Amino acid sequence: MPATRQQFAALVVAAAVLLSSGGCWQDERLPAADLSAAESDQPFSLFLGEELGQIDYAQLKVRNKCLAGEGYPQNLNIMLGEPRNPFRHLRITESSFGPASEAEARRIGFGRDSLSAPPSVVSSDPSYDDAYDRCTAEAWRALSDDSQDVYYAYFELGNKLSEPLMPLIDEGMGSQWPQTLLSCLASKGHGPRDEAAFLKSPNPALFDVPVGTDAAAGLDFWEPKRMPGTIEIGPAVPASEYRAGPAESRLAVAWFQCRRDTGMAREQLRVAVEVQRDLIEKNEHLFVELNPKVIDLAKQSADLIGAA
Amino acid sequence: MKARSIMAATLVGIAAAALGGTAAQADKGDGKAACNRAEICFDFAWDDFMTSSFQRHFWYNDADHSNDIWGNVPDGNTSLWVANTAGGLWNRDTECAVTVYDLSSYRTPYTTFPRDFRSPISARNNSHKRCA
After folding, report:
1. What is the DSSP letter of A88?
2. Mean pLDDT of chain A
3. Please, what's the largest Cα pairwise distance for chain B?
4. Is 60 exceeded by the pLDDT of residue A202?
5. By the 8 A CB rule, do B128 and B101 touch?
6. Which residues form the signal peptide (chain A) (predicted)?
7. B94 contact residues in A (CB cutoff 8 A)
8. Does A226 touch chain B (CB under 8 A)?
9. pLDDT in tens, B47-97
10. Where are the domains of chain B?
11. In what order do the strands lie in the sheet with B117-120?
12. How far apart are CA A259 and CA A267, in angstroms?
C-alpha cells in the first residue's frame, strides 16, 4: 500500500535527521548536542574531556569502594584525589607547539613537566582478581547500563581527533618553514650538524645539545615479589618539573624567538583552528550522538560520587 | 615496514632526543608470556592477544621505546625494536588510562587508551605514560 503524503513527509524528516547525524540516532530523552563551540577559536572545546575524566573518576571510586568492601582497600587508598581529563592535549594553545614565552623556553627547553600518577597495584591473589572483575562490572552498572560503551566510544572519538591532528597541521603549514627556521636559527648562531636532515625534519636533537633527564626514570626498576596471596603497591609517580640545561635553554630561547618573529607560531595556531574544524566536521555524527550522553553520564557520576 | 613522520613535533620545536636510557629496559612487567592484570602490554601484530609471542609488557611509563625489544619471540630473534612497530595494545593498568606518544620523551600525544581495554593501534609509538 502506498504511503500517505503525511507518512512520506515523516520519512523525509526522519531520513534528514539520520543523515545529519551521520547515520546515528540521537537519544530522544536527552537534549540535542550543542555544536556551536566548533565555530569558536577553540573548536576542540566541543570534545568533553573534563566530563570524560569525571566519568572515569566516578567509576574508579565506586569500583574501589566495592573492592574495599570485599577486604581490598589498596586501590581506594592510592587513587588520585580528583578527576583528570585524559585528553588535555586536545586543548590547542600556543603551548601545544612549544614554550609560549622566552621565560618558559629558558626554564623548560624542549622538555615537559609531568603530573603525579598513582602507583601500580599488582595482585598475586586470585580472590582479589575475582573481586576486581565483579566490582568493575558493578561500578559501570551503577552509572548506567550503557555507561561503559559510551566511555569507550568517547575515547575512540578523542583518538579520531588526536591522531591526525599534528600531521594535518604540518601538511597545512607548507614546505617553506624548515628553511625559514634554519635561516633564523643560523642568524642567532645555532647551526645543525646536518642541514639536509634539518630541512627534512627540523629536530633540535640535530644541534648536539644535551637535554635533561626523565625524572620518573628510576621507577622502571621496581619489581613486585609476587608472593601468592599478596597485593603489592609500587612506587607512586611524583609530579616533576623539567629543568633544561644551559645549552638547551639557549637553543630553546632562540627557537622560540624564531617561531615568534618569523610568524611561524601565529601560522601554526591559524592552521590548527582550521584542522580542528575539519576534524570536527568529519566526526560530527559522533559528537551529535555522544556529547549528550557524556553530559548526562557526567551528571550521574557527580551524583554517584556525592552519594558514595 | 610501518612508516611514520616526525614532522609533527619537530616543526613545533619539540626535541625527539631519547631520554630514559638504560632504566627503561628494566621494566618488563611480570616477565611472563601472558598479558596479566596491571600490565601495559604492546603486541607486534594484532591478534587480540590470543597468542603471547612478540609482546612487550610494562608496569610503568617508558620514555623511549627504541631501546625496548619484543619479548616472547619464538624464533629467538630479539633484534626488533618496539618503537614504531606495535600493532596492538592492551591496557590492564588498574588505575590509569595510558597515552601513547608519536615521539620519545612523551612528545606529541597520539592515542590514549582507557583502562581494561585492548585494540589495534597505529604503529606510531615511541613512548607511553600512565595518567598523563
Report:
1. G
2. 88
3. 41
4. yes
5. yes
6. 1-26
7. 75, 120-121, 132
8. yes
9. 999 988 889 999 999 888 988 888 877 666 667 899 999 999 999 999 999
10. 27-130
11. B55-58, B40-43, B88-91, B117-120
12. 9
- Residue A188 half-sphere exposure toward CB, CA atoms < 13 A: 18
Homologous superfamily in CATH for domain B27-130: Crystallins (2.60.20.10)
Top-confidence residue, B83 or A218: B83
pLDDT band at residue A25, thresholds of 50, 70 and 90?
Answer: low
pLDDT tens string A115-166: 999 999 999 999 999 999 999 999 999 999 999 999 999 999 999 999 999 9
B98 with B40: CB under 8 angstroms? Answer: yes
Domain edges within chain A = 43-307
Rounded distance, CA B54 to CA B77, Å? 10
Nearest CA in chain A to B25: A220
- In chain B, the residue whose alpha carbon lies closest to the alpha carbon of A115 is B132
Q: How far is the CA of A88 from the CAs of A9, A29, A104, A161, A162, in angstroms?
A: 44, 29, 19, 12, 10
- Residues B93, A119: Cα–Cα separation, whole Å: 10
| Residue whose cell numbers read 540535542 | A32
Q: Measured on CA atoms in the order A170, A175, A180, A181, is the torsion positive or negative?
A: positive
Share of chain A above pLDDT 70, in %: 88
Please state, in angstroms and rounded to a whole number, the distance separating the CA atoms of residues A258 and A290: 41
Q: Looking at chain A, which residue has its C-alpha nearest residue B119?
A: A156
